[in-house]
Amino acid sequence: MQLIFEKSVVNGRRALTLPEMNIAEYKLPEYREEIDLPEVAEIDVVRHYTGLSKLAHGVDDGFYPLGSCTMKYNPKLNEAVAAFEGFTAIHPTQPKETVRGWTDALNMLSDYLCEITGMDAITLQPAAGAHGEFTGMQLIKAYHKYNKDFGRKQILVPDSAHGTNPASANMCGFEIVTVPSNSEGGVDIEALKTLVCEKTAGLMLTNPNTVGLFDRNITEICEIVHKAGGLMYYDGANLNAVMGICRPGDMGFDVVHLNLHKTFSAPHGGGGPGCGPVGCKKALCKFLPLGVYGSKLPKDTASKSIGKVKSFGGNFLVALRSAVYIVTLGADGLLDASELAVLNANYLLALLKDKYPVAYDRICMHEFVLTAENIKHETGVSALDISKALLDFGIHPPTMYFPLIVHEALMFEPTETESKETLEYAADAMLKIYDKLYTNPQELHDAPISTAIGRVDEVQAARHPVLKYNK
Amino acid sequence: MAKYTPHTSEDVRDMLQRVGVESVKDLFNDVDKSIRRTEPLNIPEGVSQFEAYNKFKSMAKKNVVIDTILRGAGSYDHFIPPTLPALVNRSEFLTAYTPYQPEISQGILQSIFEYQSYMCMLTGMDISNASVYDGATACAEAMHMCCDKKRKMIIAGAVNPQYTAVIETYATAGDFEIVCVPEGSNGKIDLCALENAIDDTVAGVYAQSPNYFGLIEDMKAVGALTSERKVKFVYIFNPVAAALLPTAAADGADIAVGEGQPLGISMGFGGPYLGIMTCKTAMQRRMPGRIVGETVDNRGNKAYVLTLQAREQHIRREKALSSICSNEAHCALTATVYLSLMGKEFINVAKQSVSKAHYFMERLTAIDGFTLKYKGEFFHEFVTECKLNVAKLNKRLLKEGCLGGLELDERTLLWCVTEKPSIEQLDTVIKVIKEVASCN
Ligand SMILES: Cc1ncc(COP(=O)(O)O)c(C=O)c1O
Question: What is the 3-state secondary structure (H, E, C) of B102-119?
Answer without folding.
Answer: HHHCHHHHHHHHHHHHHH
